[in-house]
Design a protein that fits this description.
The structure holds 2 protein chains of 2 kinds.
Chain A lengths: L5 E16 L4 E17 L3 E5 L6 H9 L6 E7 L5 E3 L5 H4 L6 E4 L13 H11 L5 H14 L16 H13 L5 E5 L7 H18 L2 E6 L2 H7 L2 E6 L2 E7 H6 L4 H9 L39 H5 L5 E4 L2 E3 L15
Parallel strand pairs in A: 3-8, 3-9, 6-7, 7-8
Antiparallel strand pairs in A: 1-2, 1-4, 4-5, 9-10, 10-12, 11-12
Chain B lengths: L5 E12 L2 E13 L4 E5 L6 H9 L6 E11 L5 E3 L8 H6 L4 E4 L3 H4 L6 H11 L1 H4 L8 H14 L5 H4 L9 H13 L5 E5 L7 H18 L2 E6 L2 H7 L2 E6 L2 E7 H6 L4 H8 L51 E2 L5 E2 L13
Parallel strand pairs in B: 3-8, 3-9, 6-7, 7-8
Antiparallel strand pairs in B: 1-2, 1-4, 4-5, 9-10, 10-12, 11-12
The chains are: A alpha/beta, B alpha/beta.
């Protein structure tokens, strides 16, 4: 196998939310937001996690960050000292020393910075919390971080409102990097930004990643954005992982009908592009009441009897290309070059 | 050439804030011909939504239309200047909903949650009856309901008989947007304004809705103004494209020219900076330097000059270029093409 070891290994992750009804808030069912999700991320790699709303991509990210506790499964993380820890069962206190190693970049650059704190305080707070008491040292470190993310260090005593959306997202990135994390989880980090600014932030993430050898879990709904940043791509549908492979493989030669349909649905910015038929009818299944068998079968143009009755296992169809589809071997799906 | 359904001429909408004056729309002109889909594209703060609100006369104070004309040709053939009508004017209320319909971005917010979607469409049909059916007996509730079911069927809502009685919050995002489209089309408008109609929807559902809109457009030939920030959607939908930046039109022309022969540096840079699924993974994107200025800190001269790679020193920073032809059908406001054509300060 490859020389770089994995940094994160998620095994059979599940997260179910109870559905409560009535005056006594009785539990009447459960929504499986994340259902048996397994993947690894190697050191220095970017894994793009894509899917439509409600597919469980954000819940997966939050479980890894342990912003919520998974229902079952393991989240194995290789800590800086070489130990492998399972994050899933840890208590708040046990997680504390590991927190600086796993950081997050948020979606909304307007909601994720404290408007009553200066940039210095926003970016420097993780440092203070983690024991860097010396203000001088903090000032130096924040200046360094701002420079790293393309901001002017002399602006660090300004408040967030003085910055544009793109600049605020850079501040958020500086804050995420302040503790020197080994794993950064970015949940839709550019979806709130305008096109002209989005490109800058994507480039910044790419550059930082190469420079700092960051490992990145990049959660997004936009396939073209994911393609620009990811080494490997994982596609989720109604809580389940349906396909995971090298980015080029997923885009050029998708093996799951859902992935192929997603690719076809992206509007191409070229009026000469042949208008493609929309293969998918219907809408995303309700995770509280999912269909039988393969969750995708009611919308799948290739569904046969077995798809309705049996849940397909996720299996390796070629080296490094995993897919959850009964018919993956027989289907010749076209990717974006097809 | 047929007469345009809508002619926007030098439209100016300003917001009078305590902090200062925001020129949200600052001299925008374009025509919409019958059966044409005009795309208005731009990033946040470019004024695309305010321009749409001005057409419908729903600009909220402290915003006000301070100049220009919006000439609309009614079913009857008479041409009215919408800017001359007050927002509560009966004539305008007869136009809104009946002759100009809106598909908003968030159908959840647009439907009333305490009335079924059917009731709301039936109400619109009966209210505007004399606009879409100048003669004939008054429309009964039963007839209006039957028409609504038919409308639902035409926009691809399954089980239309049951869905007519559904409330907006019982429908999924895609169905809700379909119901909204049914409502917008109910009175057979001459002009449809779609304001980011698929932004709040997932990509596979978006593809369905865009297909539906294309199909309905083919069948009815309604003129559409399609507002979006998504250049991919514009390329697939529009015949004619207006590119806006900070309240001004940077460039406009037929869709092929905008995408294959863009003239304005902003259009060029914008097209280059879109992430594409057709590139190799992990490639750097060409970017536009800097960020969109705050509306109150709008630069002097050409609004794009501080970020423009081709800015001409001593010219672009001082004077505002006028929108002038740069080809047989394409217009751009840029001194690279017309050095002497500046807007009066």
């Amino acid at each position: 196998m490859s020389a770089t070891p994995w940094l994160l290994e998620v095994r059979n992750l599940r997260k179910a939310f109870p559905i409560r009804r009535g005056w006594n808030r009785k539990i009447v069912g459960a929504v499986s937001a994340v259902d048996d999700v397994s993947f690894t991320i190697r050191e220095g790699e970017t894994l793009g996690l894509v899917g439509e709303s409600g597919c469980g991509k954000t819940t997966t990210a939050r479980c890894i960050l342990r912003a919520m506790s998974p229902t079952s499964g393991e989240i194995l993380f290789r800590a800086a000292d070489g130990r492998v820890v399972d994050l899933a069962p840890l208590s708040r206190a046990e997680l504390r020393p590991l927190r600086p190693q796993i950081q997050m970049i948020f979606q909304d650059p307007f909601g994720s910075l404290n408007p009553r704190m200066t940039v210095f305080d926003n970016v420097g707070e993780p440092l203070l919390v983690n024991g860097l008491r010396d203000r001088r040292a903090r000032l130096d470190r924040v200046a360094e971080l701002l420079e790293l993310t393309g901001l002017r260090p002399e602006h660090m005593h300004r408040f967030p409102h003085a910055f544009s959306g793109g600049q605020r997202q850079r501040i958020g990135i500086a804050r995420a990097l302040s503790t020197g994390p080994r794993l950064v989880v970015a949940d839709e980090p550019v979806s709130a930004l305008d096109v002209s600014v989005q490109a800058q932030v994507l480039n910044l993430l790419l550059e930082l990643q190469t420079r700092l050898r960051l490992t990145l879990l990049f959660v997004a709904h936009d396939l073209s954005v994911v393609k620009h940043i990811s080494d490997r791509v994982a596609v989720m549908y109604v809580g389940r992982l349906v396909e995971i492979a090298a980015a080029d493989g997923v885009f050029r030669r998708p093996r799951h009908p859902y992935t192929a349909a997603l690719l076809r649905a992206v509007p191409v910015p070229d009026p000469h592009a042949p208008s493609r038929d929309v293969a998918l009818s219907g809408e995303v299944a309700n995770p509280a009441n999912p269909p039988s068998g393969c969750y995708f079968h009611p919308r799948c143009p290739f569904a046969i009897e077995v798809c309705r009755n049996q849940t397909p296992p996720i299996r390796e169809i070629e080296t490094g290309h995993l897919v959850r589809c009964h018919r993956a071997d027989e289907l010749a799906l076209t990717g974006i070059d097809g | 050439m047929t007469e345009p359904v809508l002619q926007v001429e030098d439209l100016q909408v300003h917001f009078f804030l305590d902090e200062g004056l925001v020129r949200a729309v600052d001299g925008v002109s374009f025509d919409v011909h019958p059966g044409q889909v005009v795309g208005i594209v731009g990033e946040s703060g470019c004024g695309k939504s305010v321009a749409m609100k001005a057409i419908l006369q729903i600009v909220e104070p402290p915003g006000r239309i301070v100049g220009g004309r919006i000439r609309f040709q009614q079913h009857s053939g008479t041409i009215v200047d919408l800017t001359r009508l007050s927002a509560t004017n009966a004539e305008l209320r007869a136009i809104r909903g009946a002759e100009i319909a809106l598909i908003p971005q968030e159908p959840m917010a647009a439907f009333s949650p305490v009335h079924s979607v059917g009731e709301q469409i039936i109400e619109a049909l009966r209210l505007h009856e004399r606009q879409w059916r100048p003669s004939g007996p008054r429309l009964s509730k039963t007839e209006a309901r039957a028409m609504t079911v038919e409308l639902f069927r035409s926009v691809g809502i399954s089980m239309p008989h049951e869905r007519v009685d559904a409330y907006s919050w019982q429908l999924s995002g895609g169905l809700r947007q379909r119901a909204m489209i049914a409502m917008a089309l109910s009175c057979r408008p001459r002009l449809l304004i779609a304001d980011e109609p698929t932004t709040a929807i997932d990509v596979t559902t978006q593809a369905q809705i865009l297909n539906l809109l294309r199909d309905l457009h083919r069948r009815h030939g309604t003129a559409i103004i399609f507002i979006t920030h998504d250049l991919g959607v514009i390329a697939q939908m529009a015949h004619y494209v207006v590119v806006m930046y900070l309240g001004r039109v940077m460039e406009q022309g037929p869709v092929e020219e905008i995408f294959h022969a863009p003239k304005h540096p902003y259009t060029r840079a914008l097209l280059r900076s879109i992430p594409s699924v057709n590139v190799a993974p992990r490639t750097l994107l060409p970017t536009i330097a800097g960020s969109i200025p705050h509306p109150l800190g709008r630069p002097r001269g050409c609004p794009f000059h501080p970020r423009c790679p081709d800015a001409i020193s001593g010219l672009c920073a001082d004077r505002v270029p006028a929108l002038r032809p740069v080809g047989p059908t394409q217009l751009a406001s840029c001194f690279l093409y017309n050095r002497d054509e500046a807007v009066e300060p």
